[in-house]
Amino acid sequence: MKRLVLVLIAALLGGIAHAAPPAGQDALAGPQVKVDVGGRKLNLYCTGKGSPTVLFEADAGRAGWDWSAVLPEVAQRTRACVYDRAGLGSSDPIIRAATVANASKDLNFLIKNARMEGPFVLVGAGYGAMVAQHFALRSRGASVSGLVLVDAMHEDALPADRAAKLDAVVACLNAAEQGKPGAGCSYPASSINGDIGPALAAAQAAQTNKLTYWRARASELDSLDTSADQLRKARKPFGDIRVMEVPQAEPAAITTAVLQMLEAR
Q1: Which residue segment(s) compose the domain that 155 sits in?
Q2: What would you measure as the largest C-alpha separation in the chain, in angstroms?
Q3: pTM for this prediction
Q4: What stretches of the chain adopt beta strand conformation (E)?
Q5: pLDDT (tens digit, 9 = 90+) per residue, 19-36?
């Protein structure tokens, strides 16, 4: 197994900073290409040209727009894509439990039906790192050459506060069902976002008024133990897939890791 582990300290890096939101960010604020994944459609957005294709997987309860500060930097080098898992962003609602296995199946259909060309470098944050790993271990026909795992959630070390987080999300779901989302029911902040403009800020705020969003977010949290077991059972050596671990969910560190992954091929 070829495994490359990088510990990237952002303070030691020449930061990639934006005084204003990246150009083209508004494209992430609404639907782009809706891809059928079996009677449902997931929202996909790609930019840039080249190979491999870098595909980003957001953290739990989060949409593809979280990568707005990283996507344009990577797209200068190669093809870069973000998508929204079921129930999140501009994708259709969930129709089954939001587990990593089901997300992995959806991703397989997305790649196939969108006719995306591999090989792929998957970049996953938190829970998204679990989805990316499960897909790489169980993918059928999709060539994964690299994994960049950002502040990755581990199947044997799930967040201790996940029950409390689920209770809070369920309370927001109940409030949304009554048309009265609570003051604490906001789209969660993320350091990955970087600077965002008004269009993206409005889209994130609008998420919290959607029952489909709270249902998907609750389901991902409620299914964490099942997801952990699914990934645990899928575990095996990654073989020729290179793996980089980024402990900090910060745009400059993530971008640097992805570019180093591309250069190492």
Answers
A1: 10-264
A2: 52
A3: 0.90
A4: 33-36, 41-47, 53-57, 80-83, 120-125, 144-150, 242-246
A5: 456 667 899 999 999 999
